[in-house]
Amino acid sequence: MSTLTIKNLHVQLENKPILNGIDLTVRKGQTCVLMGPNGSGKSTLGNTLLAHPACRVERGSIKFGKHMLSKMKTDEIARAGVLLALQHPQAIPGVSVTNLLTIAARKFPQPKNFKMAHFRQEIKDTAKALHTPDEFLSRSLNEGFSGGEKKKMEILQLSLLPAKCIVIDEIDSGLDIDALKLVAKQISKLRKRGVSLVIITHYNRILRWLEADRVHIMHKGKIVKSGTSALAKDIEKNGYAAYINE
Ligand SMILES: Nc1ncnc2c1ncn2[C@@H]1O[C@H](COP(=O)(O)OP(=O)(O)OP(=O)(O)O)[C@@H](O)[C@H]1O
Ligand SMILES: [Mg+2]
Q1: Which residue has its alpha carbon closest to ligand 1 atom 17?
Q2: What superfamily would CATH give domain 4-92+161-238?
Q3: Which residues does UniProt assign to the signal peptide (predicted)?
Q4: Cα 201 to the center of its chain, rounded Å
């Protein structure tokens, strides 16, 4: 069972405490939503899961199944099946979307019957499902892409690599409502495959198409409230005031 287990996680950025004792469990196939005011540490948590070099783990642990992620390097964590869709995706000039994916696919453990020709077709099919024209696949990743196009590229990559647990950081910012629906449906397909999801968001709207098992509210580097999807609806309507003590 590949359960993600975060225990008493304390993280500093440039000697400043940002995460102050996070405890979180996400079981295989579960969808967990993380909400919280700007600056509460949501992206820092996502970045720490993937061992961003700026995130210094001071105390606590992150485990995924048998893997102790908090002692592993980013590429090892990715190969263990834990991937991150960035809040601010980076451009990689000179590397096309297809090149990046075909190179990445070879670095991951793949089933014995893996065929590159079939994988190339899957790239095209997934792009089509996201209403992304083929021409994007031969362009440099994210170079000159609009905000929404970059977000679609993040989901395209996560869909094609052998993910077991994915952290999706504010995929809904920058997407128009039709694009959000397409992206949410693509994420649902991953969920049906048994992928665990950690969805970081400010809005309830993505949850129209994705059922959340748990919703957690972060504030000042801690989880201050946990509940069901009703909690996300309440936050969207009434804000955070009832859940955070300034
Ligand atoms: N390099 C850094 N040095 C010091 N503090 C930093 C650094 N990078 C980020 N921070 C601070 O860490 C805190 C948490 O940032 P983080 O990006 O995790 O918040 P967030 O919850 O994702 O916010 P948002 O909803 O706006 O995306 C913020 O107060 C931010 O200013
Ligand atoms: Mg953030």
Answers
A1: 43
A2: P-loop containing nucleotide triphosphate hydrolases (3.40.50.300)
A3: none
A4: 10
Please state the atom number of ligand 1 nearest to the C-alpha of residue 45: 18
pTM above 0.90, yes or no: yes
77 in Cβ contact with 49 (< 8 Å): yes
* CA of 163 relative to ligand 2 center, distance in Å: 22
* Nearest CA-CA partner of 36 in 245, 239, 246: 239
Q: Rounded distance, CA 33 to CA 212, Å? A: 7
Q: What is the pLDDT tens value at each position of the chain, 246 positions in all? A: 699 999 999 999 999 999 999 999 999 999 999 999 999 999 999 999 999 999 999 999 999 999 999 999 999 999 999 999 999 999 999 999 999 999 999 999 899 999 999 999 999 999 999 999 999 999 999 999 999 999 999 999 999 999 999 999 999 998 999 999 999 999 999 999 999 999 999 999 899 999 999 999 999 999 999 999 999 999 989 999 988 875
Helices (H), 50-85: 74-79
**Measuring from atom 13 of ligand 1, which residue has the nearest CA?**
39
Tell me, in angstroms, the distance from the centre of ligand 1 to residue 28's CA: 28
For the chain, the straight-line distance linking the first and the last C-alpha, in angstroms and rounded, comes to: 39
Considering only CA atoms, which residue is closest to atom 7 of ligand 1?
Answer: 13
Binding pocket residue ranges, ligand 1, CB within 6 Å: 13-14, 16, 18, 36, 38-44, 54, 87
Positive or negative, the Cα torsion across 38, 204, 232, 85?
negative
The protein residue whose alpha carbon is closest to atom 27 in ligand 1 is 38
